[in-house]
Write a sequence for this structure.
């Protein structure tokens, strides 16, 4: 019997003669298929370990085993088609909680898997609603708080759910402007992060569930960072103080402690070059123990709790890369720690605090441990108007010096950022022979409010210029072949790919767009119900479709109205159930390209939303993009299956051959 393809490739990697020549093609299955195991967490009592892994049908389920004694490994979820991507332990250590939607529509329900009975229940069984797990507490181990838009589709009320009876009780009502809620150690909801119509962020608190809400802090949009870098961390154990990620009085967000009675504030951690990237908050003591920043491409921890200093020093010696604590037991004796590298899959370790020893638990994709993976090299450049832009360049393993065909890979958001990490997409492109260029263009988040605000109303303008400047830098440095540069991205990155093809047609050879925005008018008018509260911030940062003074700019920066300027082949992919960037965004762009006689390939996945999460669809998408890039840039190719699709994929393909050259 012949070995499976992945085994055969691993055998080839072991042959020195081939390694000295050109590294072999890494199968897409190894990069984009399911992990073998991932996301391990300890039960609060420290007796069990859970993780996600595929079942016999390739569907990701949650698995559990007892740490001591017999091996009782078993799957505790039973999802038939769409795998579990995230889960949490309830505080009773016998229930696992996870969200699940239908074919990517993001109307998630919260499910509970009971380890003692094997029963899986929908805790939020209401049609058409969107529920999310908010918080659990050891003070009420058989209760959880969830948010639901049951009463009002644009709202986010909090409900208290009993794990014993399934009873659902309204706990806190959303006044209509709340984005996130925070509960204290007693599972009382006492913090709310809201947004005003003009984009101002408001942090509200209350002293108890029987006292009225009051404003703790107001931050206008231009003085703010993006929400993931601002907001509540948690309340102190006695409820008298609150810990915040706050940009108030600083260009970057910092961790502050605020006394609720007096308003006195103390800065606990800050960095002039980075917003707060991660916070270690003790689940029992309710104190901030360590804060992570990212100023040089790497995660740097500032330890505040002296009792952890030796632990962090010991972890720093365990392995190369950036580490983060992903799970801990209630006694705080055992941790699960993740190590991130650029040229290795994610590795998880168990760490014993009593001995300060770490043991490898597993790699999430062990078949890649010996693969020829490429290194990410950080760089800086000056934009044409003087901003400092940071990014990463990844060249193929053993590539000779000199310019290469290049893919400009644009991150989504746009209010996120690229970081030094293992990226399957980057490794895939580098392995196929491309230099991969990533840049944190203006509006990228995590780099402070000034850099974020530099992108306000600059979609298709200065943000597009930054991408062009990154390509020019790579060409000048002798890294990129100017005649063979592709632009590629998803979500905002997809918009950037469409905009690059339309507004910079001489810079790029081809463009790849996955669920990108093509028409700013239709995009800004089609927000899903749960996004209505942030319409004000989009009006400020992107544009106000109701303001006549903005019409010309919004039209000029919508790629759908500039297809006559497109001269390069286009690849467009879309999930039919995407609630954020709706199918109409891709449909109207493709129709306009076809009408203009342009070369466009359109792939629709009927059972996907904002992202291609079904493994078969993810593999199918990358197989098609790989063939597209090979055709136009000349890179290496792992052929698409002879059937013309990955087995099990739902892809619906439309090909229009045009006059684009």
């Amino acid at each position: 019997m012949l070995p499976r393809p992945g085994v055969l490739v691993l055998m080839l990697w072991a042959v020195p003669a081939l390694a000295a020549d050109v590294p072999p093609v890494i199968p897409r299955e190894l990069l984009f298929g399911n992990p073998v195991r991932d996301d391990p967490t300890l039960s609060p009592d420290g007796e069990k370990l859970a993780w996600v892994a595929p079942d016999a049908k390739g569907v990701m389920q949650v698995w559990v085993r007892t740490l001591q004694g017999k091996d009782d490994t078993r799957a505790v979820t039973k999802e038939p088609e769409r795998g579990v991507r995230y889960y949490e332990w309830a505080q009773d250590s016998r229930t696992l909680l996870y969200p699940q939607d239908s074919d990517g529509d993001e109307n998630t329900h919260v499910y509970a898997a009971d380890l003692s009975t094997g029963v899986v229940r929908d805790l939020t069984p209401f049609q058409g609603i969107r529920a999310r797990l908010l918080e659990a507490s050891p003070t009420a181990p058989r209760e959880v708080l969830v948010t639901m838009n049951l009463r009002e589709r644009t709202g986010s009320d909090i409900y208290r759910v009993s794990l014993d009876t399934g009873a659902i009780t309204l706990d806190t009502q959303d006044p209509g402007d709340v984005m996130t809620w925070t509960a204290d150690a007693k599972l009382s909801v006492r913090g709310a992060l809201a947004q005003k119509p003009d984009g101002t962020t408001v942090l509200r608190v209350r002293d108890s569930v029987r006292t009225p809400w009051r404003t703790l802090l107001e931050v206008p949009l231009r003085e703010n960072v993006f929400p993931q870098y601002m907001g509540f961390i948690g309340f102190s154990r006695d409820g008298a103080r609150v810990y915040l990620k706050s940009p108030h009085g600083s260009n970057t967000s910092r961790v502050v402690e605020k006394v609720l009675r007096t308003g006195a504030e103390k800065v606990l951690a800050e960095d002039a070059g980075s917003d707060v990237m991660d916070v270690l908050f003790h689940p029992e003591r309710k104190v901030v123990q360590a804060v992570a920043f990212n100023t040089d491409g790497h995660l740097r921890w500032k330890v505040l709790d002296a009792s952890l200093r030796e632990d962090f020093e010991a972890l720093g010696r365990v392995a190369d890369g950036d580490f983060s604590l992903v799970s801990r037991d209630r006694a705080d004796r055992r941790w699960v720690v993740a190590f991130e590298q650029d040229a290795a899959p994610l590795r998880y370790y168990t760490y014993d605090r009593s001995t300060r020893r770490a043991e490898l638990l597993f790699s999430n994709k062990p078949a890649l441990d010996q693969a020829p993976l490429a290194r990410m090299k950080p760089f800086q450049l000056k934009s044409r108007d003087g901003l400092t832009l940071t990014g990463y360049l990844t060249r193929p393993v053993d590539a000779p010096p000199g310019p290469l065909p290049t893919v400009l890979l644009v991150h989504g958001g746009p209010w996120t950022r690229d970081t030094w990490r293992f990226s399957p997409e980057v490794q895939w492109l580098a392995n196929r022979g491309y230099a991969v260029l990533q840049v944190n263009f203006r509006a990228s988040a995590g780099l402070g409010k000034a850099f974020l605000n530099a992108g306000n109303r600059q979609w298709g303008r200065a943000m597009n210029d930054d991408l062009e400047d990154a390509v020019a830098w790579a060409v000048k440095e002798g890294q990129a072949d100017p005649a063979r540069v592709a632009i590629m991205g998803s979500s905002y990155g997809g918009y950037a790919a469409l905009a690059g093809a339309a507004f910079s047609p001489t810079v790029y050879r081809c463009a790849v767009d996955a669920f990108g925005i093509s028409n700013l008018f239709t995009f800004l008018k089609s927000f899903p119900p749960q996004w209505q509260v942030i319409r004000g911030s989009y009006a400020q940062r992107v544009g106000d479709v109701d303001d006549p003074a903005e019409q010309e700019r919004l039209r000029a920066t919508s790629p759908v109205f500039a297809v006559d300027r497109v001269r390069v082949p286009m690849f467009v992919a879309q999930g039919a159930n995407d609630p954020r960037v709706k199918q109409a965004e891709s449909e109207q762009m493709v129709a306009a390209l076809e009408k203009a006689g342009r070369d466009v390939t359109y792939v629709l996945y009927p059972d996907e939303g904002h992202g291609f999460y079904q493994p078969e669809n993810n593999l199918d998408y990358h197989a098609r993009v790989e063939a597209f890039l090979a055709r136009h840039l000349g890179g290496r190719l792992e052929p698409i299956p002879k059937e013309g699709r990955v087995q099990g994929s739902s892809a619906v393909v439309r090909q229009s051959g045009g006059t684009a050259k």
About this structure: Confidence is low (pLDDT under 50) at residues 1-20. Residues 615-633 form the longest helix (19 residues). The CA atoms of residues 424 and 467 lie 22 Å apart.
